Amino acid sequence: MNSRDRLEKALHGEIVDRPPCICPGGMMNMITTDLMDACGVMWPEAHTNPQMMADLAAANYQNGCFENVGVPFCMTIEAEGMGAEVNMGNKVYEPHVSKYYVNSVSEWPKLKKMDHNSGRAKVVLDAIRILKEKNLDAPIIGNITGPISTASSIMEPVVFYKELRKNPEDAHKYMQVVTDQILDFARAQIEAGADIIAISDPSGTGEILGPKMFEEFAVKYLNQIIDGLQEEKMGTIIHICGQMKPVYEQAKLLHSDVLSFDSCVAMREAKNNLPDRVLMGNVSTYTLEFGDEEKVKTLAKKCWKDGSSIISPACGLGTQSPLENIQAIIKGLDEEVKS
Description:
The protein is an alpha/beta fold. 48% of the residues lie in helices and 10% in strands. A six-stranded parallel beta sheet has the order 1-4-5-6-7-8. A hairpin with an 8-residue loop joins strand 2 and strand 3. The model has no long low-confidence stretch (mean pLDDT 97).
């Protein structure tokens, strides 16, 4: 079973020889400094050059790290496209928003329209096309930043969260404009050749929003994106940060094929609360960066036994994670199959 077949079956709860091991990209960055050194392609240049972005994404697969390729390597494309200023970081640190564009949700008419024919949005789409031309066995994962996370990157997050409660009418208008543009970008990624769309919405956590607001502002707009994607996509993944205990009932309403959680969520608990859903996760990124290969193998096996159908890091990799620790995830799964 090759990487593509394995993931496609796992996405829909079908029988596989072992769980696929992936790291989508976007917020769940899979690039490390070891990998950059191994292939000779570096940040920050790879964030703005489609050939370099594609080559670096492919190197992740070719070096036995994960069974997919995915771009981009950050979660600032959408916010930048709608007006925020972005610092491109360096070899160790990912791009980050350096200046907000609006001061209130009531300024939603000011948001810029993302241009897919220029800037970094074009870089991502071109990189997907290049990856498609490589004809790898690995599925291509296109990544978008979730609505709450994008919305709170265009303006000051503390103000944004307050205005969700104080000014819900404008907040919904603001969220709708943001969501529509994210959906357009996701559809463009599929048209460019992405097999799967992964949505990371770390700021849309139930820990911050609470159950009511999580359903009203996170679930609603995430589902608009999922429901608006082309039917020819292989599948969808949503990653949610933070504890899930307050919002398991609301998470059942998400339309995504796969739900991914970070390391603070016990996978066995998640499976007990979401028995009919395909779950993904959640090998500790702390262990991947600071542990050893045997510990990584143990955690990967435990995730599988506890109910994860797709094994992945719990969040984005620390860029200085050793290459051998990353490669140990697949090695641990293969060992479990043979045992």
